[in-house]
Hints:
- The chain is α+β, with helices and mostly antiparallel strands.
- It has helices at about 15-30, 65-70, 75-85, and strands at about 1-10, 40-45, 55-60, 85-95.
Amino acid sequence: MIKHVVVMKFKPGIGESDITQLEQGLDRLPGAIPEILSYDFGRDIVHSERSFDFALVSSFKDLEALKRYQSHPDHVKVLELVRAMCEQVVAVDFTF
């Protein structure tokens, strides 16, 4: 099993409607991409100096399933939105 963790730091000026659009896009992915075994995301609630603004944690059967997810057209659309909204995106993928 592969755990995929992504944290995002939004650009200055990103508003509530932008974040809601991101959440709606992410919310549709589990229904569209069968490789997704679990999919959780949300906004940071601590807001410390070291905090990122948003996180995504998902699970996949294996590395091949993760790669299919990453290249899926619906994921690519959301990824374009993430890139437009974020000044920094950090990811880690590990087995569990």
